[in-house]
Specification:
Number of helices: 3
Distance between the termini: 12 Å
Low-confidence stretches: none
Number of domains: 1
Radius of gyration: 24 Å
Strand content: under 5%
Shape: rod-shaped
Largest sheet: none
Helix content: over 70%
Oligomer: single chain
Order of helices and strands: HHH
Structural class: mainly alpha
Number of strands: 0
Length: 107
């Protein structure tokens, strides 16, 4: 009797983990929830020394063009989204293993 109760509990807990992970991922990918901020971008310091006026103008022009193509937060958001996808996959795997243990106890 104890094995059946423990098996049902493990099965329910594993399924709960899987459903939570899928629901959270759905909310993140549809834009209803914010992406968990794992990575952030800080300002880059110029470690090369003084620049000439020409280099400053070129760097500023290139920076403005790149901002038109990619936003400043693109890479941190992409990496945070990839980290969430890996965590979600790990949670789904863990939930399936826990549910598997519950099923084995029910047999």
């Amino acid at each position: 009797m104890f094995k059946k109760i423990l098996g049902l509990t493990l099965l329910a807990f594993g399924l709960l983990i899987i459903v939570w992970s899928l629901y959270s991922s759905y909310n993140i990918f549809t834009g209803q929830a914010e992406i968990p901020e794992v990575f952030t971008m800080s300002e880059k310091e110029n470690l090369q020394g003084p620049e000439s006026e020409f280099e400053k103008i070129i760097n500023q022009a290139m920076g403005e063009q790149l901002k038109g193509i990619l936003s400043l937060d693109f890479l941190p958001q992409l990496f945070s989204l990839m980290a969430w996808a890996m965590f979600s996959g790990l949670a789904i795997f863990a939930g399936s293993q826990i549910s598997g243990l519950g099923i084995n106890l029910l047999k």
